[in-house]
Amino acid sequence: MCSTCGCGDSDVRVTTPGAATTDGHGHGEHSHDAEHGHGERSHDHVHPEPDDELRTHTLELEVAVLAKNDGLAARNRVWLAERGITALNLMSSPGAGKTTLLERTIAATHRAVSVIEGDQETLFDAERIRAAGARAVQVNTGAGCHLDAMMVSRALEQLRPEPKSIVFIENVGNLVCPALFDLGELRKVVVISVTEGDDKPLKYPHMFAAADLVVINKTDLLPYVDFDIERLTADARKLNPDVQLVPVSAKTGDNLEAWLAWLT
């Protein structure tokens, strides 16, 4: 049980479509210790009241979980950098269009692309990526609502991306927890669709504060929805003055060149 968000990781599965499911205990070149960092810390001689003790213990667990994750993320980052691999963490709410954007990107770029797909269940998205022409592994998190550095480490071990390629990490659809967990990526990309409303930066500030780029997707639907790009841009930059924003339609390909230019 992850004390940061309350999700579990005991049923995580890393699968290459068409291959057997792994339990994640392989010891290849890039495998890491599977311990999730939930050990208890020793107490001093101060004995707080029960409620205070529970809050203190919970905070210590949260710090331990994130510290453990950050250490593994740093190892992922070194592993990727040594091979000249660019890793991008794509985050969004469910249905924002991350997979469709990746399908378009695979078709439009000359650089080798591979994808780590994160979902609670199914192999649907990994199968779509493979059909689009890229290598993919699926990470099913079960009850978990985000990917973490250990899951990405295990996925990279199976994926074995080419040197100097791009690895997209399509995170579990969720605008909260993925913002807290470093995966070892070079950049964080938030995808938001115009059907979700333009108030999301203020509702989910941690996600937008963490983003390097915000892709505003489904712009082909702008005539039919109440969505103000200028408002979203202003609110996002209140949280993160350096964030870049790119409006696109992954369905029609409109302004896809701006997204590809950012990747370059």
Question: Mind explaining what this structure looks like?
Answer:
- With 264 residues, this protein is an alpha/beta fold.
- It has one domain (72-263): Rossmann fold, CATH 3.40.50.300.
- Helix content is 35%, strand content 17%.
- It contains eight helices and eight strands; from the N terminus they run βαβαβαβαββααβαβα.
- The chain has helices at residues 50-82, 98-108, 124-132, 149-159, 200-203, 205-210, 229-239, 256-263; strands at 13-15, 86-92, 113-119, 135-140, 166-170, 187-193, 213-217, 244-247.
- An eight-stranded mixed beta sheet has the order 1-4-3-5-2-6-7-8, sandwiched between helices.
- β7, α7 (229-239) and β8 form a beta-alpha-beta unit.
- α1 (50-82) runs parallel beside α4 and α2 packs parallel to α3 (124-132).
- The model is unreliable at 24-45 (pLDDT under 50).
Briefly summarize what is shown.
This protein is α/β, with parallel strands linked by helices.
Note the total helix count: 8
Terminal CA distance reads 39 Å
Q: Which sequence of strands runs across the widest sheet?
A: 1-4-3-5-2-6-7-8
Largest sheet: 8 strands, mixed
Spatial extent as radius of gyration = 19 Å
The helix fraction, in percent, is 25-40%
- The computed structural class is alpha/beta
Mean pLDDT: 88
